[in-house]
Amino acid sequence: MDDLTGVYLRGPGLAELEREIARAARTKEPLALAFVDVDDLKTINDSRGHAAGDRVLREVADTLRATLRSYDRVIRYGGDEFVCLLPGLDIAHATQRFALVNAALAKRPEGGSITVGLAQFEPGDSIGELIARADAALYTERAQRRALRTQS
Considering the entire predicted model, what is its pTM? Predict the structure, then answer.
């Protein structure tokens, strides 16, 4: 487990993902994967200090665990990135879950928000392919947000 956030580290988390992919392939149940990026963490670190950034990371991880189901997996993938496995959910239901995460984060003392890219497991997907699709969806989501802000 990651010492700072209390979620799976990348290596053990990817092993969990491998098991979930095998299960989804075997049972034909849906599996959504979310690539989650903490918004503006560098700005928080630069303006309020790394301790504040660490608090935001902990609050994001706590909120993910509290809002997602107990058997969903939360993995710290990189500095400000998480990967979440949502067995049995399609993208529409996963989208609803992450809207609840952002709503809960807005109420937390440190505030914060996340941007999420979602991908649905398809038979034959490798871990790399599934993560790459979710990562690409994250960049698309971020670009759409920027375009909306520019229009406002």
Answer: 0.94
